[in-house]
Every structure is written in C-alpha cells, then in structure tokens.
C-alpha cells in the first residue's frame, strides 16, 4: 500500500447541525485512528466532499437548509463510491427507506450506541 493510500483510508466526515454530536464523534473517530472532517450543514458537507478524499460520511437526516436525503443524493452524484451511514433522532420509516434506496449503507437512531457505530464503521473502512 502506498503512503498516500494510508493517509486517505480513514477519512470520515460527520454532517450534523448539532455541535455536540460533531464534537463527540470527532473525538471518538480520532481515538479510533480515523481522520475526521466536520460539517454543520449541506453546503459545508458538499464542499468537503469535493476537496477531500473522504471514504465514509455519517449524515444526520434533519439538517436546516438542506434535508439529509438531498445531501445524500448530491454526495452520491459527486462521488458514487463514498459510503454513507445515516443518523436520525426521528422514527421516520419512509425517510430511512428513501435514504437506503439512494445509497445509504446503514441507519442509526439517536441516541446511538457508540460501540455499535464504531463497529459498523470498522467493517466499512478497512
């Protein structure tokens, strides 16, 4: 594996409008050896997707300004190979189904089990 590959292997973006969630996941991801990127809204997320070699996105579905499903669709349009895991505090089966149909690989309800989330990330980001 080339040195450049190791730099991009664990680049994960957290997209959530709640600063507390972003900071918590930032610390958890760093502690697990990943390189986290944080976005508070869809615009920031899409800019980072274009600028950075991100391999996985943890995406909140309820973000003011641009719905999570819209962000998901745009991420997949820009870079179809990026893996996206959904986070939501709302029990909305239709929204979750729509997210999975648009390329999400997993869905976690808030408050999520951190160990379960980390395990799911490790399965996807080798």
Automatic annotation (TrEMBL):
<dbReference type="Pfam" id="PF00072">
    <property type="entry name" value="Response_reg"/>
</dbReference>
<protein>
    <submittedName>
        <fullName>Response regulator</fullName>
    </submittedName>
</protein>
<dbReference type="InterPro" id="IPR001789">
    <property type="entry name" value="Sig_transdc_resp-reg_receiver"/>
</dbReference>
<dbReference type="InterPro" id="IPR050595">
    <property type="entry name" value="Bact_response_regulator"/>
</dbReference>
<keyword id="KW-0597">Phosphoprotein</keyword>
<feature type="domain" description="Response regulatory">
    <location>
        <begin position="11"/>
        <end position="125"/>
    </location>
</feature>
<dbReference type="GO" id="GO:0000160">
    <property type="term" value="P:phosphorelay signal transduction system"/>
</dbReference>
<feature type="modified residue" description="4-aspartylphosphate">
    <location>
        <position position="60"/>
    </location>
</feature>
<dbReference type="InterPro" id="IPR011006">
    <property type="entry name" value="CheY-like_superfamily"/>
</dbReference>
């Amino acid at each position: 594996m080339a040195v450049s590959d190791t730099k991009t292997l664990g680049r994960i973006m957290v997209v959530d409008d709640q600063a507390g969630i972003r900071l918590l996941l930032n610390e958890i991801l760093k502690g697990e050896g990943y390189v986290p990127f944080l976005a508070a809204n869809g615009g920031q997320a899409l800019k980072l997707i274009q600028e950075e070699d991100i391999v996985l996105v943890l995406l909140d579905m309820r973000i003011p300004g641009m719905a999570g499903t819209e962000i998901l669709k745009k991420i997949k349009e820009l870079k179809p190979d990026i893996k996206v895991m959904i986070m939501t505090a709302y029990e909305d089966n239709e929204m979750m189904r729509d997210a999975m149909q648009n390329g999400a690989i997993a869905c976690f309800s808030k408050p999520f089990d951190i160990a379960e989330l980390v395990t799911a990330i490790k399965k996807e980001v080798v």
